[in-house]
């Protein structure tokens, strides 16, 4: 009975459909997860932080909410067309890739090809990192005003627009990238790292986001001067602790995940979409781990420590 239940899970059509969708829309899944967690769980945890100035907590909440909203909007603007274009390549690689690429990368299910397209799909977070920081900082005073009734100074409205390109041209452009010999050599050399690419891209994106946010926050004229350092420290501590904790937990869980993956492969042997399911599993694990740590576990700790560091630095001057 227990074996039947396990096999039922491994062959569950909803699980497989979810993993397929996750494989095709990994960046969108990460953005949606961030949106939900950053607008609910993280603000509630920050507001529950003891022995911390109320306004510092409010600024941290505003940053969390603004970050989640902007991240979702920007990533969907960039990620969805890329994900759709890659899906076109998956379905008809002969149309978008050269004969040499077809021979070298053997799309659509080879590990090298999957590594390349996964990097493309997850790159939306990196592409939007600096614009996200700019817009998040611009949104913080607005959220402070609307949510916490803090009056914001008058400021010039800023907008960011993206020119729309046909998906067909984008698919051909991505195909041209994969046609490059240097790209193919890189993918073939690193194809065994396809299990960890989602984790590494997430980490790189977080570092870029935190760095750009710190620089831009320090230059902002719309955030109170005496609140900037605590906000910056909060982000640095959160990101640093998330990366350290995330890599550690992911390493511990990876053994159990690998066992599940092998059983999943055996139960779905012959399924033409098996490679997509496996790719979805490799995206799901680090996404949930990093989100749980950053949005659920760390906010109280990072908010508390950030204020203490800020006060210590100010007292040393």
In short:
Helices cover 81% and strands 0% of the residues.
Walkthrough of the structure:
This protein is mostly helical and 317 residues long. 81% of the residues lie in helices and 0% in strands. It has helices spanning 2-10, 13-24, 26-39, 41-47, 54-91, 93-96, 99-105, 111-122, 124-127, 129-148, 167-179, 181-189, 197-219, 225-267, 274-297, 299-316. The longest helix has 43 residues, at 225-267. The radius of gyration is 22 Å and the shape is elongated.
Task: Give the topology, please.
Elements: H1 2-10, H2 13-24, H3 26-39, H4 41-47, H5 54-91, H6 93-96, H7 99-105, H8 111-122, H9 124-127, H10 129-148, H11 167-179, H12 181-189, H13 197-219, H14 225-267, H15 274-297, H16 299-316
Helix pairs in contact: 2-15, 3-5, 3-15, 4-5, 5-8, 5-10, 5-11, 5-14, 8-12, 8-13, 10-13, 13-14, 14-15, 14-16
Question: What features would you highlight for this structure?
Answer:
317 residues, disordered N terminus, single chain, mainly alpha
